[in-house]
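Both lines are quoted verbatim for reference:

——
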Amino acid sequence: LENLPANWIVVCLSAEASLDDLYITRITQGNTPVTFRLPMKRQAIREGEDDGFGLETLLTEMVDIISSNDLSAKTAAGIASENRTQTQKEKTEWWTTRRELNERLKDLLCHVEKYWIGGFKGLLLRDDFRKPVYIGALNEFKLSVEGLLTKAISGKAKAKAPILDLDLCCMILKLGVEPDPFDVEDILYYLMDAYQYAGFPIAYDEINIDAMEASLRESISKFHRHRILESETTEEVTRPHLVLVLDKKLQSIPWESLPCLRGTSISRVPNLCMLRDLLSSAAGEHSTPVVDKDDLYFVLNPSSDLVNTEKQFAKFLKGNPKWKGISNRAPTQTELEENLKSKSIFMYFGHGGAEQYVRGHHVRSLDRCAAAFLMGCSSGKLSAQGEFDVSGTALNYLMGGSPSIVGNLWDVTDRDIDRFTKTMLCRVGLAKEEMFPVEKSSRKTISKERCELKYLIGAAPVVYGIPVLFK
């Protein structure tokens, strides 16, 4: 990954189901990759509980939420197919169910962040703490943490206490100017356990964990107070990008919507080999593929039953004389293949990911493939194949040469995903704000926040591949 841009972070997430362990590997330009093993139930174990929130529990809850969501969406579609509107009672019940599912998904993701990731959120975030202007304060923080941990070591081993790595200190500092005591305590216990396993006995019975937590919080805050004072004289940090590499057990979880990551530029790739190939084939500055935004092909409402979606986007898509496409009819396989090969952007507004119009192996065998917006239900869903790797439409596009694909992890309702799509198109520069006017206060809102159901719908869209630059 020698072509990895300096402002990118690659994070590999994998799980050991039998032990309920989460492995996080962080890769950045010019640095040695680092891996952390985080027991998913570590908080419960510390509190003396027999049970905790492990992988099987999370996946079961996730499946139940998505199954209930799909059933709810099909109920609304069934009423629409009967050419009738919902009664007030049906509408109230439907929205009550949807909002409850939205809250369940939100709570689930908050739990993953708090208990699985805990004090290690910094592994997912970028920083500039090693700049020369901050290095003095960083070394001071490092010494304060080492001193705090040395006090916890029993006996003569204090004299040989290990030295903390600066990258680890930076990760801790990314908890922010007012760190959550829960996260700080998680870091302290993890570091003391690491010392213990390395042969440095820890006098747990003699430790005042509350005093240690308060001291570490003050050290973190002190560093950030210094950083804020110096920040006016430093240049702005380049917008970072996070690439997630998820194993097959974790790929169904919308990690992009963890509270600490909402609003962050994030994409997914199936493996590091795919990321290497994408970076190698990218052209332009910062290893970002440059895409001609006038070279676009669209398919709008090919099944002729998404009347509202067609109404929302027809004027926009047909208003640019350079764009080509079809609406209200199904494309032929040859027609779709030719445009995927020859165009820079493919925009699809229909059911699924257009797999009913072009076979997956045909897409995989393309020499090149357009960047794709697949806005249909479950267009970004990957299916498990037992012991084998997952498969799905998004991977077909990546293997066919597409640099970037937007797709949905599960079924979505048309009105909410249309709101998301409008905001997204404005944010990436493919649409002007006057085409899809929104309240002034919402113009800089991330696309996910424009959804009525910010998790049940807003968490469904994800990006596969790497960022592209529309010109």
In short: The chain is about 40% helix and 15% strand.
